[in-house]
Specification:
Bifunctional adenosylcobalamin biosynthesis protein (chains A, B, C), Rossmann fold, seven-stranded mixed β-sheet, homotrimer, alpha/beta, EC 2.7.1.156 (chains A, B, C), 43% helix
């Protein structure tokens, strides 16, 4: 199995780095977007990511059922999941049991045949947020990142477009 | 002397990493908590940390007088201070002279016989906070981290549960 | 050419590190401050930086026209630009075309004869900011850092006063 976690801050070049890693494997790459185009800001971001990637990717929109999507797309090229923090945010909004969903993902990853590259965000390196919801989210994101990093073969931390190898 | 500083973001796995380091030394480890159980959120966090650590630690609650606590517990197992940012916050609330207290700590650390492992937070990697108090705090935390890192033998930066060696 | 980018969080020791790098080159170093002394908080910060650096620097205040300042000061000692995030903020306030200005800088840097050391901030590792302006700024800062890191010979990420080599 090949499971690569690419983490970093906003606009650190994580997605681009993950695309490079995904393309390095044989087969047509699959782009699993956890974003839904719900507003203009998100629309524009999705369009920009797509323009950079090019048209040779299989595309899936998967806001919630990530394990199912990985199972369904297994067997061909690498899967790029962009990104886990948005997926976590979707789980919280949908009032799903996020710790259980994260654990299901952690259990499913080592069983994948085709490579999986997962993009996530570091959100816990600023000042403690005022509102309780933001604190809950950053705690959840930190725990998720630790859990997925533990099952990954490789973990990279991207700063200013440059990856540091964590694992 | 052995002084190890473990830094990182919220829920990055710093405390767990620091516990591993503390247990690697001979003798019964001492847990020096700078947190006070003042609200339910903090209560719950303290209980969770304790459950993970197990019962074989000597425990101390030290919101302010860290140098005195280090002196009193010196001579046996390693001391784990969790965490410096909360200590700093306590100093600010109590209107103590925090730069002087940080300097006292920096001077006391090299004189310790038993190992000291200190956990701290990186809080300066987000957007500049709106309110002046938060800006003051993140500036103070950054200066404290530099000061303690300078006297430490080892400094680790933990991201997604994985330590990077800074020193 | 020598172009060194030093990045990190607030009060991480970036400026001090950049000063050490700038002084390592022959010739009188040039300090290019992008800060303007508009309020007491900034005044105090500028004074503190100056006290630390000492009096042997040529000083320039350059809130906007960075490429011109680099051209004018080329040929002698190293130039230290402190810092790019403030410059970006100045560009946004002045309603300049910031992506074009960042590109102009990226194009000008490899043509410099004397070394250039640039300080910047990582601002994207906290929770997503509530207000749209802050989101725009952190996106712009991230893109700027990637662009300048790409043309730099060396990139360092400073945490707790300790540099990690990214490039």
């Amino acid at each position: 199995m090949t499971v690569i976690l690419v983490t970093g801050g906003a606009r650190s070049g994580k997605s681009r780095r993950a695309e490079v890693r995904a393309r390095s494997f044989a087969g047509q790459p699959v782009y699993i977007a956890t974003a839904e185009a719900l507003d203009a800001e998100m629309d524009e971001r999705i369009a920009r990511h797509r323009a950079r990637r090019g048209n040779d990717w299989i595309e899936r929109e998967v806001p919630l059922d990530l394990v199912e999507a990985l199972t369904e797309t297994d067997g061909a090229g690498a899967r790029l999941v962009d990104c886990l923090t948005l997926w976590l945010s979707n789980l919280l909004h949908a009032e799903r049991d996020w710790p259980q969903e994260v654990m299901r993902l952690a259990n499913a990853l080592p069983r994948q045949q085709s490579p999986v590259i997962l993009v996530t965000n570091e959100v816990g390196l600023g000042i403690v947020p005022d509102n309780a919801l933001a604190r809950t989210f950053r705690d959840a994101a930190g725990l998720m990142n630790q859990t997925i990093a533990e099952v990954a073969n490789e973990v990279e931390f991207v700063v200013a477009g440059l990856p540091m190898k964590l694992k």
